[in-house]
Specification:
The protein is an alpha/beta fold. It contains 6 helices and 8 strands, in the order αβααββαβββαβαβ. The chain has a single domain, classed as Ribonuclease Inhibitor (Leucine-rich repeat, LRR (right-handed beta-alpha superhelix), Alpha-Beta Horseshoe). Strands 1-2-3-4-5-6-7-8 form an 8-stranded parallel beta sheet, with no helix packed on it. Helix 5 links the parallel strand 6 and strand 7. Helix 5 runs parallel beside helix 6. The chain is globular, with a radius of gyration of 19 Å.
Amino acid sequence: MSVRQCERKLLEALKRLMNSLPSLRRLELVDLMLDSFEAIHLLDDVCFNQCTTMTHLTIINATKYICPLLHLTTFVNLKVLVVSPQNIGDDVIKALADSNLAHLHIVQNRYTPVDVVAVAKSAWKRCKFRVHLGVSTRREKTLLIQEGARVSSVIYASPQIKLQADTISRVIELYKDTLRVYGHTCLPRYHQAKSFHDRMDSWLLLMCRQSPNLETLVSG
């Protein structure tokens, strides 16, 4: 049996397992890295059987490449959705605007495609849910800014990503009215200027002054 055949059998087994849990409320599928055709049909049975029961759904890197998954919008009582940027798009966000979703977490990790693009600014216009942006990787990766989104938190978890003035400035510019949490965990050790005004501290203080709803600042 080839590797490809084994992968297909495992995928079918996963589908059968999900289908056998009609009262499923939470589902996490991480780094499946499927082809687009496989991913499009991944949640067919789940949408039918758990349409009303699912409240928390995590789909991180369902695909290797850009492939918006409209199935994510079919769970009528979904409160928390954690997803990678390549699996959402303008149509997905517009559909979620009419849902009961409370929190949308957009997560980038080492498998997130480098050519992924942000959702159009206009698509966020009717969205009332909070958006959380996160980068979790051991390598450097640029945060994908979602212009127009009601971003409530921005969290980096990486030993390679430093505090950067241009990123902080952009976050302040776009999210100062909605931002509640900003943080860098696992910060790398690096040299900074001795002058306070040339250090990243001054940018963090600017964020605190400019963001009236900021509750938590993590740096360490």
